[in-house]
Write a structure and sequence with these properties.
2 copies of one chain form a homodimer. Chain A is of the alpha+beta class. Chain A folds into 2 domains: 8-71, Arc Repressor Mutant, subunit A; 86-224, Chorismate lyase, CATH 3.40.1410.10. In chain A, 25% of the residues lie in helices and 31% in strands. Chain A contains 7 helices and 10 strands. In chain A, the strands form 2 sheets. Chain A has a 6-stranded antiparallel β-sheet. The first copy, chain A, has a 3-stranded antiparallel β-sheet with strand order 1-3-2, covered by helices on one side. The radius of gyration of chain A is 22 Å and the shape is elongated. At the A-B interface, strand 7, strand 8 and strand 10 of A face helix 5, strand 7, strand 8, strand 9 and strand 10 of B. The structure holds a DNA duplex.
DNA sequence: CTCGCCAAGTTGTATATACAGCTTAGACCA
DNA sequence: TGGTCTAAGCTGTATATACAACTTGGCGAG
């Protein structure tokens, strides 16, 4: 019962978010002005202002001083992350991709997972463990957690046909992503799944994505160090792309 | 020359950020309370509150109701994956940065270096080898090559005072950048310079940048796997972010 | 009809005030 | 000494008010 009372500014935010997610408000539509919210929700203008300002910072809205507040249209850019979808990356190399689902279950978030997803310990999350192979050779072990209420039908998906990444972009528009890359020694299980030599290092990518202002998913992506590297390309806004950068051939590092 | 007055809450934010990046405030240190800011900066409490609240949302601070506001000690995010000046990164964590130049010489490009820089074998390049330390602990071995005619005064620079990255941004406007990340076993020399355990993996970043249509520099950045991870933060285009100028500065790519 | 100007509406910021809830240090008592 | 209670200080939120800057639509003069 208790249902501890949410702050008023949060109630205003929820109202707007609700209308957007129900489709009542479409991108570029006008959102109630601060003064209209003052009347309809009986809050002070500063409270309405905070709600709209935070929703703007979170990427939902777009404000124009003197004009109004509008629903932002954020397109889930396909090339936002260079390595968003391992299947596409492999296909781009002209190789064959296959995936094997090792685990697919409903769990309770604990420890690192709960912290990463900003949920209470014990909250329902889906856990998916998938091995991706390039021309039959294991290239990525995907260990992914998804907040359950974002993806009610997660257990019904066949992740050997649609990758978890592709599924997630479909259900939750990408708003923000965070990526942490580190080198590590894999444990025995990871080494076995990825068919790695003893002592071979592992490239580990921790990735979180946000949608609608909340973390949606947290994934640990393990790659065998001898067969995989992460590439990124950057062009500052407004500069014409000159020569497409051909990949540096890698050799022994002697210095 | 009215240099376009910043909002008061932004001035407060700048003050705090400045103290952190100059090292006057260390992680877990206590930040002035709202009421102290009211007195010292002659702002209202709501303005101080907004400044501290936004810095908290941005990950700089950590607040405990009833206790106080403190410098956050994780501070990983906020930089794009196409990363940054190692000195600034360390400063943002509130730690001390130092650099030691191991080598600084004029060489002839050969093998991988010549190919990466798109120059003929034997072309003049400057070679710089620098160890960067965070609070005295080696955190990056920077092995960098610069095309000579871009940087005639490269040998005169003191890279323990200005980082190679900062120097290069000064002489060559960034046009394009490429980055390759991999996990590897370091050789003995690298392991020694970075004070790494036997068998500890290494995070290696290969980075190339272009200016005026030509490759300028090629660097191999070795990081000890146990002490370093690369973090990236993405926001899709069209997602309006906080428009303050210092955010743009943070996201600017470093050479 | 067109141009320019003005008024109304909207966002952006700033302040003063108020109260609730939490934390901590120190006073006080057994 | 050790436990308890209280007061001070802190953050979190909410409101009323005020002014500045910007946008837009409409009105009136030419």
């Amino acid at each position: 019962m208790s249902a501890l009372q949410k702050p008023r500014y949060q109630q205003v935010k929820d109202l707007i978010i609700g209308r957007i997610s129900r489709g009542e408000l479409q991108p570029a539509d006008r959102v109630p002005s601060e003064n209209e919210l003052v009347e309809s929700m009986k809050v002070s203008r500063m409270t309405a202002n905070r709600a709209l300002r935070e929703l703007t910072d979170e990427g939902y809205l777009h404000r124009v001083a003197g004009s109004g507040t509008f629903v932002a249209d954020f397109r889930a850019g396909s090339h936002v992350l260079e390595v968003q979808n391992i299947a596409e990356e492999i296909a781009a190399r002209g190789h064959g991709h296959s995936a094997e689902t090792l685990r697919q279950s409903l769990q309770h978030a604990r420890g690192e997972v709960a912290r990463a997803l900003h949920v209470e310990q014990g909250t329902d999350v889906f856990h998916v463990l998938v091995v991706h192979r390039e021309n039959g050779l294991p290239i990525q072990l995907e260990d992914r957690y998804v907040v359950a209420d974002f993806a009610p039908d997660c257990l019904d998906q066949d992740f050997s046909r649609i990758t978890p990444s592709a599924y997630l972009t479909a259900i939750a528009p990408l708003q923000e992503a965070e990526q942490v890359v580190r080198a590590a020694q894999p444990n025995a299980a990871v080494r076995k799944h990825l068919n790695m030599r003893d002592g071979e290092p592992c490239l580990v990518v921790l990735r979180r994505t946000w949608s609608r202002g909340r973390p949606v998913t947290f994934g640990r992506l393990h790659h065998p160090g001898s067969r995989y590297e992460l590439t990124g390309h950057y062009t500052p806004p407004g500069t014409p792309r000159s020569t497409s950068a051909d990949v540096v051939e890698l050799e022994k590092l002697e210095q």
